[in-house]
């Protein structure tokens, strides 16, 4: 009887927590037109969609774009409130140029929101062994070090307004796959940086929010580009490595890319989460978005290591093909 009573109390408390959380998360900030947000990586994908969404809501948006084409597209499709600026987050000089523009515009009001969205996939597919140190450096320069540089540069403006930082991590920052390579490593680091920053900035009234998307249909997940990158990294391998892994291993990687394209989700769900993190009175610290992350990546990450590895082999065997030289050992 005591066990059932404890379970009943736990269930009531959990349901109460969910109801209260749902109610609080419905609240929205007033006077959004007084707020200014900087978004990086607005050429395409989540950043582009979010910039347009916030512009429609009346916020003042600085949209960081890597290319002049991205700047031109946003100028044409958005109101005069939105100001696209050239920003390469991997270049400190470019980040400083963007900071001067934003600082002059916001003055003493400060910056309400910073969305660190810029990111690249880099080499992916195959296996960890195929990526070089330079491959890792290229991805880390954008996904991690660029994020850190932008955040540290704009923090003084965020402190003035007691604003919000929204960092785009990934489901790949919760569960590491052998084909994930530099991208997965960078997103694990983004999770650590964001958690540390959230705890450090609490006293200043600056909130930090983490976005964890799964597979969504954006340019970073373009199937044609992913297949080309896999071919490129395969051609870089030595004859010994190609023999060791075999053509079947390469083809399995291509099949996994093609299969993932069929389960890509609508990016609007991610933009909804970003908007909520910026515009809700009680935003979440972490947004887990997508059925794949919610029901596969996160639950598997909670398992003991050996059980987690087994679960991946059972749930997604196409993600862990066997090299040719190892088949005789099984």
UniProtKB/TrEMBL annotation:
Keyword field contains Cell division: no
TM stretches of this protein: 6-24
Domain of life: Eukaryota
A biological-process GO annotation: steroid metabolic process
Molecular function as annotated in GO: oxidoreductase activity
A Pfam short name: adh_short
Transferase as UniProt keyword: no
InterPro entries, per database record: NAD(P)-bd_dom_sf, Sc_DH/Rdtase_CS, SDR_fam
Keyword line: Membrane, Oxidoreductase, Transmembrane, Transmembrane helix
SUPFAM superfamilies hit by this protein: NAD(P)-binding Rossmann-fold domains
Gene3D superfamilies: NAD(P)-binding Rossmann-like Domain
Family: Belongs to the short-chain dehydrogenases/reductases (SDR) family.
Record-linked PANTHER family: 3BETA-HYDROXYSTEROID DEHYDROGENASE DHS-16, SHORT-CHAIN DEHYDROGENASE/REDUCTASE FAMILY 9C
Protein name: Retinol dehydrogenase 16-like
Gene from which this protein is expressed: LOC118411273
